[in-house]
Amino acid sequence: MTDAGGMPVYRYDYTRFNQYPQPRFMSEYNESDSLRSAWRNARAYVQLYARNLKLLSIEKTTLLLSGAALAFMLLLLVIIAFFFISIGLILVLAEVLPLMWCFIIMGGVYLVLALLAFVLRRSLFTDPIARFISRLFIDNPDGDDDSPVNVES
Q1: For residue 99, which of 87, 90, 112 has the smallest C-alpha distance?
Q2: Residue 139 CB partners (closer than 8 Å, separation 6+)
């Protein structure tokens, strides 16, 4: 084909270069296609959300259980250390006092420590555990916890 001046006219099909489908006219609009597409997208979103929830719960549970295992191991080591320290103190006191009184004194020391732990239970046990669990389950995904929240958007 040539134009009026004798130059060849090339016709390009630009739609084959377009990766997106051409918009339909209202007469060609098919409602079931859009509903199927919306349903497919919603189903994919729910599946991805469920997978993300599973992965997050596994991560948080792992952190919680490893923290509990670490606390248990430290508690066990502290108990063993207190046992040996108390035996040493009993042997030192046995140089001056009868052995029975040394054991009674050591039992009294442990009762005082237990009473102190009971009085300070909130600051020693409850608050640190609550802080650990709240940081574990309510964390900032960006990592900057100190950044102020902008509420004027």
Answers
A1: 90
A2: 145
